[in-house]
C-alpha cells in the first residue's frame, strides 16, 4: 500500500471521509483483536470504539517509513486493549443489588444480635475507666484518635494504646464466653 492509499495521513489532515474509510478497512482487524483480548465480553464494542478514538487522536504520529498502517493500527489496538484488561483486573467486582430492600435483622437473628451487643457492652463496662472512655468516644461518638486526644488530654499514642488494649480485652472475654448470658 502506498502512502497515498493510507487513511491515517488523511485522518491527520482532517478528511472526514477518512475516518469512515479507516473503520471500513480496519474494523474487522480491530474487532478480531478485541474479541481475542476480551472474549465475548459486553465491553468489546466499547473497546473497539476506544481504539478508533485513539487512532483518530494519534493519526499524525503514523510514520509509513517505520511500519505499515495495519501494523501501526494493531499496535495501538493492542496497547488500548491491554490497558483496558489491566484496568478491569484492578476494578472491584460490582455486585447486583438485591430485589428486596435490606432492613434490620428480623426475629431470631435480631435477638441474637441484641444479645451479642449486650454482652459486648457488659464486657466494655469491665474495662479500666480510661480504656472505656476512649473506646466509647471512638465507637459511639465516631471521634478520631486526634479528636479523642484533644478531648481527654491524652497523647495520641496513649489513646491508640488504650483503644487497642481495651478491644483486645473485650475480644478475649467475648471469645471466652464471659459477659451477660
UniProtKB/TrEMBL annotation:
Q: Which family does it belong to?
A: Belongs to the sigma-70 factor family. ECF subfamily.
State one Pfam family annotation.
Answer: Sigma70_r2
Does the keyword field hold Nucleotidyltransferase?
A: no
Origin organism is: Frigoriglobus tundricola
Q: Name one GO biological process term.
A: DNA-templated transcription initiation
User: Which UniProt keyword terms apply here?
Assistant: Sigma factor, Transcription, Transcription regulation
Give yes or no: UniProt keyword Transcription regulation.
yes
Where do the TM regions start and end?
A: none
The organism's taxonomic lineage, starting at the top: Bacteria, Pseudomonadati, Planctomycetota, Planctomycetia, Gemmatales
| RNA polymerase sigma factor 70 region 4 type domain boundaries | 122-168
PANTHER family with a match to the protein in the record: RNA POLYMERASE ECF-TYPE SIGMA FACTO (PTHR43133), RNA POLYMERASE SIGMA FACTOR SIGZ (PTHR43133:SF62)
GO molecular function terms here?
DNA binding; sigma factor activity
* InterPro entries noted in UniProt: RNA_pol_sigma-70-like, RNA_pol_sigma-70_dom, RNA_pol_sigma70_r2, RNA_pol_sigma70_r4_t2, RNA_pol_sigma_r2, RNA_pol_sigma_r3/r4-like, WH-like_DNA-bd_sf
Annotated ranges, domain RNA polymerase sigma-70 region: 23-90
The protein's name is RNA polymerase sigma-70 factor
Amino acid at each position: 500500500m502506498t502512502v497515498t492509499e493510507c487513511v491515517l495521513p488523511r485522518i491527520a489532515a482532517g478528511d472526514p471521509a477518512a475516518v469512515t474509510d479507516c473503520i471500513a478497512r480496519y474494523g474487522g482487524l480491530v474487532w478480531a483483536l478485541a474479541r481475542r483480548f476480551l472474549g465475548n465480553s459486553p465491553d468489546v464494542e466499547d473497546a473497539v470504539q476506544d481504539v478508533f478514538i485513539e487512532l483518530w487522536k494519534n493519526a499524525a504520529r503514523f510514520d509509513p517509513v517505520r511500519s505499515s498502517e495495519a501494523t501501526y493500527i494493531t499496535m495501538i489496538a493492542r496497547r488500548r486493549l491491554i490497558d483496558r484488561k489491566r484496568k478491569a483486573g484492578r476494578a472491584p467486582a460490582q455486585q447486583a443489588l438485591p430485589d428486596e430492600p435490606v432492613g434490620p435483622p428480623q426475629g431470631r437473628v435480631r435477638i441474637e444480635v441484641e444479645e451479642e451487643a449486650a454482652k459486648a457492652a457488659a464486657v466494655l463496662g469491665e474495662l479500666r475507666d480510661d480504656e472505656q472512655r476512649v473506646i466509647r468516644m471512638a465507637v459511639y461518638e465516631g471521634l478520631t484518635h486526634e479528636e479523642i486526644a484533644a478531648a481527654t488530654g491524652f497523647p495520641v499514642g496513649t489513646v491508640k494504646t488504650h483503644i487497642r488494649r481495651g478491644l483486645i480485652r473485650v475480644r478475649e472475654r467475648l471469645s471466652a464466653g464471659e459477659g451477660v448470658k
